[in-house]
Amino acid sequence: MKKKDENEDMFKLITVGDSNVGKTSIIRRYIYNVFDKNSMSTIGISFCFKEICLENKKKIKLKVLDTAGQEKYNSLTKSYFKNADGVLFVFDLNRLESFENIENWINLYEQNNNRNDIPKYLIGNKSDLEKNVEKKKIDEFIKKYNYNYEECSALDNINIDNIFQKMGEQIYNNYLLREKDQKNIKVSEFVEEKEKKTNKCVCVFD
What we know:
By secondary structure, this protein is an alpha/beta fold. The chain has six helices and seven strands. Strand 3 and strand 4 (59-67) form a beta hairpin. The chain is globular and about 70 Å long.
């Protein structure tokens, strides 16, 4: 997370998944409210920004990263996992293979980010098409990994805004919890140091 100024925080949200599952289309629909049937596959990494207003009226900015699905770009994708505040694992509901490959993307993520507290969503895109991934398989997956699951359609603009709004809320709430934990650690260290110096108990009131 990167501080921009006193009133705005910026958080990094990364999308991963196989080529042609619609990662770019989801992002473009969310950021610009457009859909391009002829959009090209992402080469390397691209990113864009969007300011959102949370339920508590707090405004934050999301830096949304679009990653390439080709294996040859995995080394580049790895570097962007390290400081991610949230991850969307995207598959195509019409392509079973793209769903089965999600575990490969999860393994890549876990090898390069040791933060367990960030929100991770499994996203089934192209809900406007025939579904070739059984609901049972999806249910087993989200139970195994304890991920949030959402279906969407970038083409028909179904559930796109809702996904990013939910993610933004969770990212910010997690940030507040980390800040609170850090504050508690600092207070604990302060008390411990004072006790060493004075050999007395020290009370700190928040």
